[in-house]
Every structure is written in C-alpha cells, then in structure tokens.
C-alpha cells in the first residue's frame, strides 16, 4: 500500500527533457509515475496499490525538479552552533532544494567512512532534504595522504574536495586526481596560494578606498588554471567551484576547448553584488570568499552561464555565528547563508534581467548539478522512475529578505533588507509534501 501525490495544473519545467508547458505530475511511492493529464479516480484504477491520493493545486506555479545544491557548509561535526545537518536540510527545503552536497571542512573533516555514514544517517533521521557528503581528498585535508576514495563512495560520498586547504605539495592534487579518475568521481578543488589570497575584499580601487587589504583575482585564476592542467594530465573530472573573475571563466573555457573534463559553477550571490557595494555597505555580511568582484567580472560570469561554460549555480551556503560577524571587517570570518535566497537571486538577477531563460536557469540548479554529483540516475529530472523530488515556486512573488523570513540558524545574508522575486511554495520529496 502506498501514497500518491498529484500536482495539478502547474507550469511543468523540466530542463532535462525540455518540457515547458502546463501539465499534471504524478508521484507514487516517492517516485515519478507520469506527466500529463490525470484524474484522481483514475490514479486509483491505474495504481491499485495506492491507498491515498494527495492533490496539490499548482495553478500559477512553476513545477520544477527539486533543486540540487553543490556547495553547503553545514558545520556538523564541530560547528554545530552555526548549523547542523538536520537543520541545514530543513533550511534547504525552504529554499526549494531537495538535495544538498555538504562540504568536508568540518572538525574533524569528512575524511573517513564513519564520517560519511554519519552525514547520511543524520540526513535520513531528519527527513527533510537529502544531504550527501563531499568527502576529503586527503586525510585531515592536509594534501598528503590520500583518503580511501573507493570505500568513501560506497559509504555515500558524491564527490571529493579538500575545500580551500592549500597544500605545500602541489603534486598531491595531481596524485589525488589520478586516483579519483579511477572511480569516475568529480574533484571539486580550490586550493589558493595563501600568500595571494590573504585579504578582506576584492583587491583594487574599492579596497583602497575602504582601507582594507585586497584579495587578488590572480589567486583564484592560478588555482583554477593549475587544476585544469592537472585534470588534463590525470584524465579526471574537475569541477571548478565558485568562479568570480573574468579570467577564471576564460581558463575554464580554454580547458573545455581542449576537451579537458571540466565543469564549473558560480555561487548565486556572486551574481548580485560588486566590490563597490561592499565598500559602501561596509557590512561583514558582505564578506564572502571569494570576494565580490567588479561589474565587469559579473558580466563575464553571466556570459559564462549563457555560453554553458558555467553549467551550475550553487548556494554557497555558509552560516557564521552572529558574534563572529560582529567583529570588525578585517577580522570577521568569511561566509553568507544562501540556501533560502539562491532561487530568488537567480530569478531576479538572471531570468528577469533577460540573461537566461527560466528553463536554462533551472538546468543549472537541477539536471547539471545532478550530473556533477553522479546522481542523475535518480535525481535532477521529472522522469518516470526517478525520485519524485519537486520544487513548486511562484516566479512572480516579491518578498523582502529579513531575519524573520530566514529559517537559517544564523542570519548572515548580504540580502537582508532587499526585495527579491521568486519564492518556493511547496516542496515534494521522500513521498511527502512540505508547504512553505
């Protein structure tokens, strides 16, 4: 005996198939059972084992695959006061995300089977969005001894990264990529030279006016270019995370032209703010890493998205305790929450601006991230037999980002006080309906 969920009359947008028209979607026992026109009594007749049908009126809403996030810092273990896996999974639901990849920069790091299983166990216990571990490439994220990638994959790891931990031995990344290539898993790496990456905001005129040390874009560009070259040598899938500069986009594009197996992402908030805004606001909620760059850099990020050089958009969700964000700008930690605003930022800054169509924008939040994480056999599309994960959102809903509107435990968002367009109204996952 099982339950069916019937979503009626919404604009069904499925980037994987190109479907974009009004239709009904049927989910039975947590799996997609069809797209078309359904009548409730026929559901019982066609699916004899269904004992209950829950019907959702989706008129006026976009019905999309559940959003998939490639980049969330969920804190647990070690930073539980800022975020836990369970709470992060609940926050994700409020943003329309049904699947989240959490990063290994925990304390201790996610570098062993027990840690990977812990993440999966906490996710299942919570019952909200699915949380999958991105496990460390090397033990303790030190860039030396490789982790047991094969065993970690069996335990649920969806990709591998040492997440910002610069190695004294660059050859360590090349060895790790060769090893990861044997298992056909993406390496998501971004180890910048700390001598170049030190600072508080984007290097340049605005940093000089603000009296703050600058972070050169060269640090990012060298890291991306080097990793692309290593990926070419190793035959590894390299996923370049959180691009922010013109030359980073160019480096990825060059590698792709050389048939290097490289994909790339941008964090939603990097499409919204410039370093001038950071200088004028002088608010630590605008202190993120990499920093907000120039208007020209944002134009190149949008160009990369249009051309398909950048195939994914991530939330960059990074909770920071309020008392830490209250420190002076130079001493405050980097980070901004993003799971609850990412969809609206994409609609506001890409779709409504005419830079991307809705279906193209959603591809970068669904089917493309699913492929990077090797989850496309069960997620990222509205297709019979796949997990019945859906995000139902109002693309025209205007809302103000306030502390009260955010369910994140911390409220460190650069969008506080701003109006955004686009809001998730329902999420379907695990055979359940979440009304938001």
TL;DR?
By secondary structure, the protein is of the alpha/beta class.
Please provide a written account of the structure.
It contains 15 helices and 18 strands. By secondary structure, it is α/β, with parallel strands linked by helices. The chain has a single domain (65-372), classed as TIM Barrel.
Summary keywords:
436 residues; TIM Barrel; globular; eight-stranded mixed β-sheet; four-stranded parallel β-sheet; alpha/beta; 24% strand
Q: What would CATH call the architecture?
A: Alpha-Beta Barrel
Strand content: 15-25%
User: How confident is the prediction overall: mean pLDDT?
Assistant: 95
What is the CATH topology descriptor?
TIM Barrel
* CATH class category: Alpha Beta
Strands, count:
18
Q: Main β-sheet: number of strands, strand sense, barrel status?
A: 8 strands, mixed
* Radius of gyration over C-alpha positions, nearest whole angstrom: 21 Å
List the helices and strands and how they pair.
Blueprint: E1 2-14, E2 19-28, E3 31-36, H1 40-46, E4 50-57, E5 62-65, E6 67-72, H2 85-94, E7 97-102, H3 113-126, E8 130-135, H4 149-154, E9 159-160, H5 171-181, E10 187-188, H6 194-197, E11 201-202, H7 205-210, E12 214-215, H8 217-234, E13 238-240, H9 246-257, E14 262-267, H10 275-281, H11 295-307, E15 312-314, H12 322-325, H13 342-351, H14 358-363, H15 367-372, E16 390-400, E17 419-429, E18 432-435
Parallel strand pairs: 1-4, 1-5, 6-7, 7-8, 8-9, 10-13, 11-12, 13-14, 14-15
Antiparallel strand pairs: 1-2, 2-3, 5-16, 16-17, 17-18
Helix pairs in contact: 2-3, 5-8, 8-9
């Amino acid at each position: 005996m099982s339950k069916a969920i019937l979503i009626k009359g919404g604009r069904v947008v499925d980037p994987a198939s190109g479907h974009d028209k009004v239709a009904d979607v049927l989910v039975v026992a947590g799996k997609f059972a069809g797209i078309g026109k359904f009548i409730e009594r026929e559901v019982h007749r066609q699916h004899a084992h269904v004992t209950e049908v829950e019907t959702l009126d989706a008129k006026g809403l976009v019905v999309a695959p559940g959003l998939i996030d490639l980049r969330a810092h969920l804190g647990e273990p070690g930073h539980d006061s800022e975020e836990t896996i369970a709470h992060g999974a609940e926050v994700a639901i409020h943003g329309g995300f049904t699947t989240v990849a959490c990063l290994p920069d925990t304390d201790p790091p996610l570098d062993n089977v027990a840690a990977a299983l812990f993440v999966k166990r906490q996710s299942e216990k919570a019952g909200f969005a699915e949380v999958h571990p991105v496990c460390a490439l090397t033990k303790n994220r030190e860039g030396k001894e490789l982790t047991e990638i094969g065993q970690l994959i069996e335990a649920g790891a969806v990709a591998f990264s040492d997440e910002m931990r610069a190695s004294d031995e660059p050859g360590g990344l090349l060895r790790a990529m060769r090893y990861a290539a044997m298992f056909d898993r993406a390496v998501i790496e971004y180890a910048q030279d700390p001598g170049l990456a030190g600072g508080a905001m984007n290097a340049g005129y605005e940093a000089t006016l603000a009296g703050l040390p600058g972070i050169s874009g060269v640090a990012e560009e060298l890291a991306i270019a080097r990793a692309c070259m290593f990926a070419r040598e190793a035959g590894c899938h390299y996923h370049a995370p959180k691009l922010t500069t013109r030359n980073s986009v160019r480096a990825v594009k060059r590698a792709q032209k050389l048939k290097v197996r490289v994909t790339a992402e941008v964090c939603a908030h990097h499409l919204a703010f410039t370093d001038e805004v950071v200088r004028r606001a002088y608010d630590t909620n605008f202190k993120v890493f990499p920093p907000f760059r120039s208007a020209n850099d944002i134009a190149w990020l949008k160009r990369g998205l249009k051309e398909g050089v950048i195939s994914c958009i991530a939330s960059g969700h990074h909770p920071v305790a309020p008392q830490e964000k209250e420190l002076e700008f130079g001493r405050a930690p980097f980070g901004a929450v993003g799971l609850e605003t990412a969809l609206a930022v994409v609609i506001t800054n890409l779709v409504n601006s005419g830079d991307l169509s809705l279906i193209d924008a959603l591809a970068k939040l669904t089917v493309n991230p699913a492929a990077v994480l090797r989850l496309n056999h069960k997620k990222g599309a509205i297709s019979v037999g796949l997990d019945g994960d859906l995000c139902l959102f109002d693309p025209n809903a205007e809302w103000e980002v306030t502390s009260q509107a955010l369910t994140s435990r911390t409220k460190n968002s650069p969008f506080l006080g701003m109006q955004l367009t686009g809001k998730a109204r329902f999420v379907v996952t695990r055979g359940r309906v979440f009304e938001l």
